[in-house]
Hints:
258 residues; four-stranded antiparallel sheet; Rossmann fold; alpha/beta
Amino acid sequence: MIAPVETVASLDVRGVRYAYPDGHVALHGVDLTVAPGERVALLGPNGAGKTTLVLHLNGILTPIEGTVSVGGLAVRRDRATLAEIRRRVGIVFQDPDDQLFLPTVAEDVAFGPANLGLRGAELAARVDEALAAVGMSEHRDRMPQHLSFGQRRRVAVATVLAMRPEILVLDEPSSNLDPASRRELAAILRGLPVTMLMVTHDLPYALELCDRSVVLDGGRIVADAPTADLLLDAELLARHRLELPYGFDPRVAGAGPR
């Protein structure tokens, strides 16, 4: 009998506890495992600890207890490990202008891989690949500041994809997007062959893009279930200050093609 091959988790958070210098404990022993290729929404009210958790994933914060591993590599503070972790964990921030600061779209997308030492044709191929993935190839020579907000968010995603990350972390990806841009970004994200962790208050977007959702509240994971099941639990949503849009029915919305 052939033994099953064990798959290394894309993300493995074990017993992570974190307190800020003022003594506020933001995370109370969080456990979270995300399998390769899985798409997970991280839900919760403001102040739940979502951002604090995300900042542990690439070593910006260090737990006072517990461990974080990405693709089997433990997050540590030495320079070589942090460089590799930050390549593996691509974080797309809520405000794309936090990630776009160079004269052209192509230069912004090239910045990360160039810091890894890529040059010439290899670097150009990375840029082409990332821009094509988000439908922004024709805008490569434009100034990011002259693009629409939705286009800038797509370029921000491209800057992360150019690093070929193990896991893509998105902070409120649908915020401030008009309906068309929201729909276009969802189509792009559905087509990306990466593990995804999406921090969002947008419950319909979570249902559209993530089969699984985790609710974090008070620094603790209080629910972990298929997104459709979780959104049907009105008592759970109310208890953790999560709200569906008026008239939105997860049973109807979740029945369409994914």
